[in-house]
Amino acid sequence: MRDARGEVRRPIGLRLWLSGGWLTLLVLGALLAPWVAPKDPLMQDLFLGRMPPFWVAGTEPGYWLGTDSLGRDVLSRILYGTRLALIVALVAGTLTCLIGATLGLIAGYYRGWPDRIISRFVDIWMAFPPVLFAILLIAVLGPGLVSIIIAIVVIDWTRFARVVRAEAMSQGAMDYVASAQVAGRTRFGTMLTEILPNVLPTIVALLTLEMGIAVIVEAILSFVNLSISTDSPTWGGMIAEGRTSVHQAWWVLVFPLITLFLTVLSFSQLGEGLKDRFDPVLR
User: Is 2 within a domain?
Assistant: First the structure.
């Protein structure tokens, strides 16, 4: 599809609707889990262990996506695991964005010694392998929701700092910034009123991408039993359990894996779609 100038336009409307619809469905499922979940996610019944989904012959009514090896309902555990995934995504993503974007904006616009200090600190921080660093932090802080959020923030703020710094430097060289300074506006005021609005679409895209990354990190930590209690339902924990019995009960692995994949993909596509829709340059 082309616009009036003959330039190709990407079909962002459908992408926004699909990604936003899936994430909205997840939010509703997490909020309404006590009412819409068919079973207690912690209730065990060994007589119903590894029962297949509802469309396979021989299943019991009410267990829509089957059960795991302990007879726990897979759908209920996915819904309750969504709560943890979304909390980590929202809180860790927001804190990471605030810290990294603020430092990147200061470094990119003020330059000079603030840029040198922040850039060197970012280079040193990014020298550590992120996954190993996260596991080390969790081992020191101990498993738990707060520890997971702290680990994600400590590791990923550098991504925001580097990207926002480059974008702020690019915007700072524009004529409208020079005009604002000639008009008598302070540097801090220029950064907030001129630079920040033009960098904001990039920040939004990074924020949604970071939320997807936070979901992946939480799933990885759950997979290796470094998240919250092993009894609590988590997507990573379900994947780890399903991996050991994939030949006998494939649904225990496949359904949380599909949920994880669609969630990360939706966060990524939502950010790209919002950036394309609201970027003042593209508009």
Answer: no
